[in-house]
Amino acid sequence: MKYPKIDLKTIRLQTRQFQAENPRLFLVYLLPSILVILSGFLNPLARLQESVLEQSFFSMLAQVLQAYLFPLVVSFVSTIFLAGAAFATLRLLKDPDTELSVKSSLALFAEERFSQTFLTLLLKRFYLFLWSIPNLVGVYFLFYSNLLARRFVALHPEFPKLDLSSVETKQFLMTFGLYFFASLILMIVGNILYIPQHYAYSQVEFLLCDTLDLGQVKPRQILKTSRFLMKGYKFQRFVLDLQLLPWYFLNWITFGIASFSILPYIQNNHIFFYRALLARKRRNG
After folding, report:
1. Confidence (pTM)
2. Domain extents in the chain
């Protein structure tokens, strides 16, 4: 079945026009931008020491999870803030007289909205986590192989002038190679599995924002609706992200500081894509 294409050029044009007409929109994304900057400075793997190699697998796994706990919490909270900003933006699109302020991104923390927001976004995270397991295992193997290499080099000051015929060197090369190539395979396969699911659930936040004032909607239903909406449009959304790649790169080289202006632009592109997607699905039944 062929699905009518969304004009991505029009999406970007609408976004620029919308932001030009609403200069106070940057206030809505102020708090999410700060959290994005904060999360960019969090490097959980840097907290792990080489001594973890001497521990059991489960002890090492526990340390990895502990190192990632705070960054995961920050990331999840920033997702709620960003969804709150999307909620305010969608309201502005429906009612141009909507007041915009820094507090607008806190809208989903209100008592009547928070539980549904929390459960829906948590369920989305859980589903995506399941799809990302192969990739995460690959990252773990890569990290482990890196630690193995660092410890081996530390124990052999003569590196790289090694006796390749020694049993110890052969054992190291075999172990390192096994973990390293396994990590590459797992990350490649993992991303092939994960990326389509990432885009399948990419409309969850916007659907959540549109349904919050309509009463309680089951989180699973919102996720199913997102998958339905994105059927036939995942590649187009991927292309949109490719077109926004220079902005992502600019944000990266500025250590997230540029997110104060870039984040609203990227998010609003996604919102206008969502609205165009919704219109096409309604038109085509």
Report:
1. 0.87
2. 28-109+247-261, 112-231
